[in-house]
Amino acid sequence: MSQTHDATPRDLASVATRLSAEFKDVHPESTVSRCIDAARHGAQDVVGHASPDLVERIARQHLKVLALALSEQR
Fold first, then answer.
1. Could you tell me if residue 46 is inside a domain?
2. Which of 13, 27, 29, 33 is least surrounded by CB atoms within 10 angstroms?
3. Residue 4 falls within a domain, yes or no?
4. DSSP letter string over 16-48?
């Protein structure tokens, strides 16, 4: 069974739940999912693995930066 681009791997489902709740008033779930995916790929490229904790920390930083950029545009 293949995953869609926005599908979150099962081991990162709790990360997606936490970040979606944390940024619910700022970003749609699709943005959170894309940030998690980008964080996972980035961690794998840089350090060779992507633990859920590392992915969550990277994705959270991405989401904060995006929120800041959005607030500056308004």
1. yes
2. 13
3. no
4. HHHHHHHTTTTS-HHHHHHHHHHHHHHHHHHHS
Reported as a single tens digit per residue, the pLDDT across 11-22 is 999 999 999 999
The residues, any chain, with a CB within 8 Å of residue 57's CB and separated by 6 or more, are none
d(C-alpha 32, C-alpha 20), whole Å? 6
The amino acid sitting at 41 is H
pLDDT digits (tens, 9 = 90+) for 28-50: 999 999 999 999 999 999 999 99
The answer to the question of residue 45 being in a domain is: yes
* Token pair listed for 27: 């970003």
Q: pTM for this structure?
A: 0.85
Domain that holds residue 16: 10-73
